[in-house]
Write a structure and sequence with these properties.
Radius of gyration: 21 Å
CATH architecture of the largest domain: 2-Layer Sandwich
Oligomer: single chain
Structural class: alpha+beta
CATH superfamily of the largest domain: Bira Bifunctional Protein, Domain 2
Strand content: 25-35%
CATH topology of the largest domain: BirA Bifunctional Protein, domain 2
Strand order of the largest sheet: 3-4-5-9-8-7-6
Largest sheet: 7 strands, mixed
Helix content: 25-40%
Length: 327
């Protein structure tokens, strides 16, 4: 018996006695207790009542590879080179970066729990097992797209569209890669790539999304002034199925990758501007040239951030931008 077996048994949120579980798996009750410790490593709280049994405080909506594949649009499923769902993995992005798929094919990796989840600039992003979406999609461009630098922003637009369609939730986008609701961080995007000597590019788009987290965890999950938020809180009800949400994201990412060499960022620019969280706010930019404060003016045609400073308008293609109080 493995911890995954025990996880599947407890995922229904009901109480299961130690005797029942030991009998079902053909192991001792001590073996059951040992695996309970592994579930705690995954950020899960297992309630144990003497004489009653074990239960999780809430039902887990686990993602299963077969169900995810079945939920994809047929034309997207036909593009899959590989689709993998892990209970535990260091990083979905790193897993896919190791080897590119053939041109025109899609790699998809999902993890229920990441031990080395990260965002931009190496920031850590860890949520309990089953509480978020940890998704990466890999694609090999035959030739490097002209607007490759803006692809992170286009992925943000894709996520925004999916959440509007699947969850009826309007979110904003903070340049270049944050997903925002009510001035709180809902998730983020990490785009990584390796250019090929022949002119192609292997890109991996990672999406981390808070779906249904323990309320006490949200304040510590982000250093933003108002902290983090999850879909369940934003919606005021149960979030959509994580399988349905993940499938919708994969479908949209596959379309983005396939069309991007022809459309470039132009096909996503209007929607990005419509969800621009920073526009009109007082912001601080930290980059190699040092900190500077100004007013965010939005993005230009190439996806660069424009900041009006005392020295004039500055075009930013890389850097850490934060909102200043009162902005």
């Amino acid at each position: 018996m493995t911890a995954e077996h025990l996880l599947s048994a407890l995922a229904d949120g009901r109480t299961h006695s130690g005797e029942e579980l030991a009998r079902a798996f053909g192991v001792s009750r001590a073996a059951i207790w040992k695996q309970i410790g592994k579930l705690a490593d995954w950020g899960l709280t297992v309630e144990a009542a003497p004489g009653t049994g074990y239960r999780l405080p809430r039902r887990l909506d686990l993602i299963e590879a077969g169900a995810l594949r079945a939920a994809l649009e047929p034309r997207v499923a036909a593009r899959l080179e590989r689709l993998e769902v892990f209970t535990e993995l260091g990083s979905t992005n790193r897993h896919l970066l190791a080897a590119p798929p053939p041109v025109g094919k899609l790699d998809v990796c999902v993890a229920e729990f990441q031990t080395a989840g990260r965002g931009r600039r190496g920031r850590r992003w860890n949520v309990p097992l089953g509480a978020g979406v940890c998704l990466s999609a890999g694609w090999q461009f035959a030739d490097t797209p002209a607007d490759l630098a803006a692809l992170t922003l286009a992925v943000g637009v894709v996520v925004r569209r999916v959440l509007k369609r699947v969850a009826a939730l309007d979110i904003e986008l903070k340049w270049p890669n944050d997903l925002v609701w009510d001035e709180r961080k809902l998730g983020g995007i990490l785009l990584e790539l390796s250019a090929e000597a022949q002119g192609g590019a292997h890109v991996v788009a990672g999406i981390g999304l808070n779906v249904a987290l323990p309320p006490e965890l949200l304040p510590s999950l982000s250093d933003w002034p108002r902290g983090a938020v999850d879909l369940a809180t934003a919606l005021g009800r149960d979030a959509p199925s994580r399988t349905a949400l993940t499938a919708a994201l994969v479908n949209a990412l596959a379309e983005l990758f396939a069309d991007y060499p022809a459309t470039g960022f132009a096909g996503y620019r209007r929607d990005w501007r419509g969800g621009d969280f920073l526009r009109g706010r007082t912001v601080r930019l930290d980059d190699a040239a040092g900190p500077v404060t100004g007013t965010a003016l939005g993005i230009d045609a190439d996806g660069a951030l424009l900041i009006e400073t005392a020295a004039g308008v500055r075009r930013v293609i890389a850097g850490d931008v934060s909102v200043r109080s009162g902005g």
